[in-house]
Amino acid sequence: MHWAVALAPLAVLFASIPAKAQEYFGRNKVQYESFPWKIIKSDHFDNFFYPAESLIVHDASRMAERWYSRHSETFRHAFDRKSLIFYADHPDFEQTNVIGQQLEEGTGGVTESNRTRVIMPFTGIYADNDHVLGHELVHVFQYNIAEGTPGGGLMRLDALPLWLIEGMAEYFSLGREDPLTAMWMRDAVMRNKFPTIKQLTMDPRFFPYRYGQALWAYVGGRWGDRTVVDIYRAALRLGWDAALVRVLGENSDSLSKDWAAANKAMYLPQIAGRTHPDSVGSKVIGLARSGDYNLAPTISPDGKLFAFFSSRNLFSIDLFVADAQTGKVIKKLGGPSSDPHFDAISFINSAGDWSPDGGKFAFVVYAEGNNEIAILDTKSTNVERRIKLPGIGSVSSVSWSPDGRTLALSGQAGGISDLYALDLEAGTIRQLTNDRFADIQPTWSPDGRVLAFSTDRGPQTDFNTLKFSPLQLATYDMATGRISVFSPFSRGKSINPQFSPDGQNVFFVSDQDGFPDIYRINIATSQAYRITKVATGVSGITTISPTMTVARKTGRMLFTTFYDQGHIVRGLDSTQTIGEPVGTVSVAWEGAQLPPPQFHRLFML
Ligand SMILES: [Zn+2]
Fold this sequence. Notes:
The protein is α+β, with helices and mostly antiparallel strands. The protein folds into three domains: about 1-150, 3-Layer(aba) Sandwich (Glutaredoxin); about 160-270, no CATH class; about 280-570, 6 Propeller (Neuraminidase). The strands form seven sheets. The protein has a five-stranded mixed β-sheet with strand order 1-2-3-5-4. Strands 11, 12, 13, 14 and 15 form a five-stranded antiparallel β-sheet that branches. A five-stranded antiparallel β-sheet has the order 24-25-26-27-31, with no helix packed on it. α8 packs across α10 (about 210-225), α8 crosses α13 and α10 (about 210-225) packs across α11 (about 225-240). The longest helix has 22 residues, at about 55-75. The structure holds zinc ion. Zinc ion binds near residues 3, 5, 166 and 169. Zinc ion (ZN) binds near residues 135 and 169.
């Protein structure tokens, strides 16, 4: 058994595919590279790494010891040495022979049960590495406690529901302030589909990671985190429902009622003042089924077409092109089932880009144990060029320069993300940044002089104390290499920068009040403007997934909102993207709170 940190409900998506089809579509696991493993020993862990990861593994081993201290106190439990096996990037991780299972892009890490080893890739963002590590180490504690429980604890652990096991791993690694999980709960409350605990247990449509985290946040907030651990220990002996009664004195029905009531009380007033996710702007792509993915829209320079990744064909995530006004799907551009030369499209944290004349589309694929860039002719839909990137293990977003000669990209080498510029004619690559900071989602200014990108640079980030700023916006000057960080807000993330056609404004997505929404910042005045106020949020699968795109010539904007556990595409014309002025000091991170409500000093500002 392994537990994936599905950063997305992929487990659900693929679990709903019949086993035969899974076999048919499943890839054979191939090891393309051999990894010369080395070990760094820390107090409680053997940290396995290969030479490319030498810099980052020291930091990761310190994070692991920090989690050991926290979890050890929470669980009131200690263990002997365990192994942590680190891969530099996801394509390397997918080749692991430590476990037999196929690993998909949505699997962020694995804890294997035989020898309780953690296997995980670095993500390119330290805060995300820390989350994956914290999540997997909860599983190590869960396993270790189960092993010591008389009467077949490990077997009983296997029988516990995912909301209990995975929800606890999310709760003890992310906590009770979480914009993504709060967005999921608002969606359930808004549709009057808030599940009972029995439904979570029986019905795979309720993604156990998000609902489980929210349930444990409720239990921990009401009775204390020790109670969460007490329920887990009791569940290993009695089963989960009897454990609730034993520890809380409440059965699952009455706890379900209290939990749902607390969610309605917190979220209904929030939803009342906001726009329904299916009515903001105009409809472009709706949901065919609950939980459908329509992701990372990328609009053509003339604003007429857009490319996006979609699960509409049920068996795989494919790349489609559609009309940017009506959403009418014009054709399927590509996918692993139609092109045997690559294994999968990278769709969770990646977006492709159109060439300035709209004739070509560049996107990221998995092939032979690495990421490559595929360039497709948008008329013929043939992939006419594939570009390997020596030394770069994985690639997220790409951006085509206004003169058509260069692709800017965020690449990951040795576990660390940096910006690179790929000269398309010469086929040469130039590294633009070189440090441990996260550098993602580069996009060109209309004059081609500057890249805007998202990064954890800034005074809040300290590699000594391993504290990291939420992602902020920054610019990179192509001539001088100078980096300027601008934090539009005092709280939350700011991601997914897109220039306005005149280059005077940058559109971006921020959760400065806990709700992910679209904003605009005027570069000259630094004034920020709010463009959306969506009841759920403007979001892709993860909190950093690209979700919004602006046409270079017309300014038409497309974005994805979260609705019915899935993602739909909505649109705004440039006249609708002016927005209302908004202050830069965020009042409260209200939209990120999970019930029960915590005490806030709201009026101290
Ligand atoms: Zn897990």
